[in-house]
Amino acid sequence: MSNAGQDRNISSSFAKGLAVLAVFDAASPSMSLAEIARRTGQDRATARRGALTLVQAGYLRQDGRMLSLTPRVLELAGGFLQANQFGLRVQPVLDHHATRLGAEITLAMLDNDQVLLLAQSTVDHGPVTYGFTAGARIPLIHTSLGRMLMACLPPDQATALVKKDPIPGHTELSILDHGSIVERIDKARQDGLVVTDSEFESGIIGYAVVVSRPGDTPVVVGSSAPRGLGDQNRQETILRELQLCAAELRHTNAVVGL
């Protein structure tokens, strides 16, 4: 099919409306039309039409000049989770291994050059570090989840991702040298696991292992712990439990086809 034929099959208005939904996050839970236009790169008239259409559809609410998401947006995520049987096939596995570990376990995948959190365990009295929820996005470079996801990619793709943009520093221990980061990704690819120390959040050690099989969409599981709880024995315990969790998800094909 020609590019022209492909274009005729795409609704640019619908795509622009989705872009409006995507700009809301924890840092910007509510925005004016001018802010939405700036963040989406749309002209103000286009952003206004898209936003007001979403208000009418019930996905945005308007309070004076400010707009924000409504709970109805959860229907979109809920359809994905139900279609892939997360409640039956993924959540019980995460919860089981998180209970054994005494810490949260997160399932994540690569999406638009970011880590997309797909699911999290629910355990009582587990330590909370980042406080993110399913659907949240976190950086690739300095998180254990992100680094493990990049290790699932062919080396040339991973290197291109690392070198694509300037590397931001989140903490004093964030590694900023492209070559050093690529070396750590290569080691993660070889080991099938990765540990990061205070690179994204000071005092927090991150752990991640791969779930997906080679050639499938990269999917990983990870956990984290305050540095004081991260002695060698504890690190080995966390990584071993993550590997058991990943093996169970892989054995049941719980994340195939994501």
TrEMBL record:
PROSITE patterns given in the database record: HTH_ICLR, ICLR_ED
Signal peptide as annotated in the record: none
Positions of the IclR-ED domain: 72-255
Keywords, in A-Z order: DNA-binding, Transcription, Transcription regulation
SMART domains with a match to the protein in the record: HTH_ICLR
Xref: PANTHER family: HELIX-TURN-HELIX TRANSCRIPTIONAL REGULATOR, ICLR FAMILY, TRANSCRIPTIONAL REGULATOR
Protein name in the entry: IclR family transcriptional regulator
Top-level taxonomy: Bacteria, Pseudomonadati, Pseudomonadota, Alphaproteobacteria, Rhodobacterales
